[in-house]
Amino acid sequence: MKPLLSLMLMVFALSLSPTSAQAQQASFLTAAASAKDYALQGQAAWNAGNLERALTLFNQSLALEPRNAQVINARGVIYFQQKNYPLALKDFNTSLKLQPKYFLPYYNRANVLRAQGELKAALKDYQRAIQLNPKYTSAYFNRGVTYDSLGLFNQALSDYQRALKLKPNDPELYNNRGVVYLKQKKLQQALDDFNHALRLSPNYERALLNKSEALYRLGQCQESKALLQTVCSQKQGKACELLGQVSCKKVEAETPAESDD
Q1: What phi-psi label fits residue 143: left (phi over 0), alpha (psi between -120 and 50 degrees) or beta?
Q2: What is the number of alpha carbons within 13 Å of residue 251 lying toward its C-beta?
Q3: Are 62 and 32 in contact (CB under 8 A)?
Q4: Which of the four, 32, 102, 149, 195, has the lowest number of CB atoms within 10 Å?
Q5: Coil, strand or helix at 11
């Protein structure tokens, strides 16, 4: 059986709330009202999933206030979502030149670098984001994902554990930590984390599939197969594909299959 072992990359940070951070408060207090209005309308459009509208509104805001680091960062997020990496990096770099201690462009730039396969460079930016905001859970989360991708499992576990102290009821964190335990062949610890994720979010498909893999590696093939059958009947997709790979004739605990992720 080939494990899913999927890791989720957190959504990019876009924060234009006047109360979200002291630096943002200072920026908006000096902004022209119309520029601020365009920026907040742009965030609302982004929240609604209308990227083109959001981009237009951010550009209108920047036409009136071209040195607003928060809006430039926000526009960079949209460029990334549109897979326009050069423009995204340009905006994050510009935002940092204007406001060097603004943590979000470091975090967002790290995500772009990671998407481009520049994992070591991404780690440096995640580290800087964490230095500037030690309570920013997403930076620990994504740095953990990056460490995992580099095979640095202990460092990944450390970041997930730090993130869980800040956000103890996040099922994705338990799922991702379970994935690392699975790769380390700490099967019971992996199963415990997947179960914890499912207590928090019973229909969390990634945790369900990863739990099935943990059960399989623990030699509990029938339980693994039954779980896949349940998920397949409800969701189809990946569970059904994995179900076709399960054979309970000769199952060895700790099957050394690995994910491509």
Answers
A1: alpha
A2: 20
A3: no
A4: 32
A5: coil
* Distant-in-sequence, close-in-space partners of 2: CB < 8 Å, separation ≥ 6: 242, 245, 257, 259
Nearest to 128 by CA among 94, 154, 159, 101: 101
Residues in the chain: 261
Amino acid letter for position 199? R
Q: In 3D, which of 205, 211, 206 has the Cα closest to residue 225?
A: 211
d(CA 131, CA 147): 17
**Helix-helix angle 153-166:137-149, to 10 degrees:** 160
Per-residue pLDDT 10s for the chain (261 aa) are 544 443 434 445 555 544 333 444 444 444 445 899 999 999 999 999 999 999 999 999 999 999 999 999 999 999 999 999 999 999 999 999 999 999 999 999 999 999 999 999 999 999 999 999 999 999 999 999 999 999 999 999 999 999 999 999 999 999 999 999 999 999 999 999 999 999 999 999 999 999 999 999 999 999 999 999 999 998 767 888 888 888 887 544 444 333 333
